[in-house]
Every structure is written in C-alpha cells, then in structure tokens.
Amino acid sequence: MAWRTPRSWYRRRAPAGLLWLLATPAARLWAAASARRIADGARFDPGVPVICVGNLTLGGEGKTPIARELVRWLGARGLAAAILTRGHAGRLKGPIEVDPTLHSAHDVGDEALMLAKDASVWVARDRAAGAQAAVAAGARLIVMDDGHQNGGLRKLLSLVVVDGETRDGAWPFGDGSVFPAGPLREPLDQGLARADAVVLLLPADLAEPDPELLAVLDSKPILIARLVPERPPPPARQLAFAGIGKPWKFQRALAAAGAELVDFVPLADHQPLTEPLLAGLARRAGGAGLITTEKDAARLPPAWRAKVSVWPVRAVFDDQSALAAVLAPALS
C-alpha cells in the first residue's frame, strides 16, 4: 500500500484542528493495540543473535540504510549476517530468500530488492519463521529491518533510528501524537524504554546534532550516523522524484550536493512507477534528466532503468569504536 506522509506531522507544535481532534481517540486505540502486541509476543529464539533496527514513527528515519550498513560492518568482521524484513508492499509472504535475478519489487518489496544487491535478505510476514529459515540457510546473525514494535522474535539488541533533521521547524516526533493523530507508532517514552541504543541519523550537510534532541534521547547510548552520497549527482539539469517515507529529504540532499533541479515531484511511499506516471514525469522535465533514489529505482519498469539516473546514499557511523561497543554482545 502506498502511503503519503503528511509533512505537517513533523512540526513540533502541530495545530490541534478538527482532524487532529477526531484522530485522537483512534490514536489511543492504536497505542493500546501496539502495547498488547508487544506484550503478547511469543519471542521465538532462533538460536543466533538478533539485532533489530527499528524506529518510533511510521517511516522515513533511515532504518533500511542503517540495517544495510550494519550487515556490511559485521561482514567485514567475518560474521555472516542476514537481513530479515517483512517485504513491505511485496506480494510474497515468505519465508523466502530474495534473488534479484528472479524477484521483482512487486514480489518482495522495493527495500528487500535493494538490500539483496549486497546482502542475504529474507522476506517473511512471520518473523519467527523467517529467522528460522535464515539460520537453516547458514546465517549466524540476523539484522531485522523494522520490528521494534513486534515481540514475536527474541532480540539481543534493539536499535531505534531517529531522524536528526530539526531545521525549519522540523522535529522527529512531531507534537508527540501517536498515529493517526501524529507520526509515532507508540508513545515516545515507551518506545525508548525498550531500546538498547539510539542511532541518530543526520543529513550529510548537518554538522552537529541538535543539543535539545540529544537531551531528549540521553537516557540511551547514542550513535551518530550520516547519510553520505556514494557519488556526486549528475552535472546536467534534473527533475527529481521520490516515493519514500520523507521524500522532501531527497530533494534537500540533492540541493545540498549541488544538483541543478528544474522540479521535484514527491510520491507516496512505495508508489508503483507505472508507464503513464513516468511518461508524465519525462514530459514535465522538459528535456532535463530524471533522477530518483535507489529504493525507487527498484520499482522502475525495465524499459525505464536506462532513462532514470539513480543517486544512492550510504549510512556512515561517526564513531566506529562506539558502534563496536554497542554491538559487543552480538560480536561475542
């Protein structure tokens, strides 16, 4: 399902209008249901360490790049880690190991297909079954992409990723409201209480994290990471488009990297990239190139893959020794 994140959710003091007032009772029900689901989880033990990379809001914090970087980091130290994901927006329930030569984003979801380019990725709606299948295939450690609010799998470590962008009135938790009144999946204090550490993910052009945000999170170890472009954007004029949790972050990152944008088109998260949509974007570009995210590129039809530039970014941790200290229980 494609979902367009309301940008107003991430204002620190969202106006309490009629829609907010109507959504407040539903938010209480959502929070109660989340608490019950977490408490009632079976907590299956797959027999190997499980590192959960989750978040406290509905998306756009950058947990998938963090999960990808953790698997790279662990692999460089000789640990065969597999990524476990639900395969959001994919049709297959799993458990199934993603094969980029066989599967499409329609099968396993765009994030799983993107991750499978350089990691072993397992898609499973049932996380316990997915972990069991990954271990049977040789995984000695599991990095779970999402699942902080899921209690079905026993976790050795739970890391929550928080968007460090606080410029122009932005705040990662909005006004503190739970969905559908705001962006939070559960009350902030409850989500932080179950976390072992916080990964504060900063844009590449933001030198230092907001001291006020650090104060909110200081009850937990904090790892600073940054989204760093893997290469410069194309020098030619571009129309950019993105169907991610917070598409405006892609626009800002391109502009900060010096890209010449003629236009930017935000799409819903996981929105299908159909032929009519892409043809319309090409017309709107008026001769400029098209550029998108690596996640969106996983949904491009074959005929458009050579027509759209892809601008990948990578999560890089500031302090490798601090990362090693947080991951020490899994390394041992």
Instruction: Provide the gyration radius in Å.
Output: 19 Å
Q: Helix count?
A: 11
Oligomer: single chain
Q: What share of residues is helical?
A: 25-40%
Structural class: alpha/beta
Q: Could you characterize the architecture of this molecule?
A:
The strands form two sheets. This protein has a nine-stranded mixed sheet with strand order 3-4-2-5-1-6-7-8-13, with helices on both faces. It is globular. The protein has 332 residues and is of the alpha/beta class. The chain is built from eleven helices and 13 strands. It has helices at residues 18-39, 63-75, 105-108, 110-115, 127-136, 188-193, 211-217, 247-256, 275-285, 294-297, 320-331; strands at residues 50-55, 81-85, 96-97, 120-123, 141-145, 157-163, 197-203, 222-229, 238-242, 261-266, 289-292, 308-310, 313-317. Helix content is 32%, strand content 20%.
